[in-house]
Design a protein that fits this description.
about 210 residues, alpha+beta, five-stranded antiparallel beta sheet, 6 helices
Length: about 210
């Protein structure tokens, strides 16, 4: 099985990344799913999505969990029955989960693609990136910003939250691999620590909630 990377964020929090190299049959062998998740799997038209879904269950097993330890609330946010915090992501041939005993967390993996430049105006002011040296640097940085906002969105999990209007990412150097993000929504504010890494043309960003008031 293809456990790709393990990141120990702190004593309470760990990230696991899986490279999906197995076939659907290999990933599905002896897999036990809840009725809800089996129906979700059966309803997926894309084998890539099916393999991503199953690889997440193999990542759960690395933490000692099964699909029966996982449930989703009415917003689609995953939870663990033992009360630990979890977030899940998969994109093409990679999937990842983050689990924390004590801190609300979110995670996102994205493939680095030119498309991010075309849609950037929907989630961030493009003029903020005018100093970047070249197109590749722009794609990389925008992918990190998108991943940061997506991971924060997964933690905050409020209907109507806008990437463009309500979530800000502090400026950062590509060499540092971490930054901060903020949510300003209604009368609430929240602050998040963000870490990111790049590998094989993909970007992974994970968020840890620092405060929410």
């Amino acid at each position: 099985m293809a456990l790709y990377k393990t990141i120990t964020v702190n004593n309470d929090t760990k990230v696991l990344i899986w490279k999906i190299e197995e076939s659907f049959e290999e990933l599905n062998r002896d897999m036990q799913l809840t009725n809800h998740c089996q129906q979700r799997l059966d309803g997926m038209r894309s084998e890539i999505h099916q393999r991503g879904f199953l690889s997440v269950r193999h990542l759960l097993a690395q933490f000692g969990y099964t699909d029966f330890d996982l449930f989703y609330d009415d917003k689609g946010k995953p939870h663990l029955k033992d009360g630990k915090h979890i977030s899940i992501t998969h994109s093409f041939q990679f999937s990842a989960i983050i689990v924390s005993k004590s801190i609300p967390v979110g995670i996102d993996i994205e493939m680095q693609r030119d498309k991010i430049v075309r849609i950037a105006h929907k989630f961030t002011p493009l003029y903020e990136y005018r100093t970047l040296a070249n197109h590749e640097a722009l794609v990389r940085k925008l992918t990190i910003v998108w991943g940061g906002k997506e991971s924060i969105y997964k933690v905050y999990s409020e209907k109507g939250l806008s990437f463009l209007k309500h979530i800000d990412i502090d400026d950062f150097s590509m060499d540092v691999s971490h930054t901060k993000g903020n949510v300003y929504y209604g009368n609430e504010t929240a602050r998040y620590a963000l870490d990111f890494l790049e590998f094989e043309g993909f970007t992974c960003v994970f968020a840890l909630e620092e405060n929410r008031s």
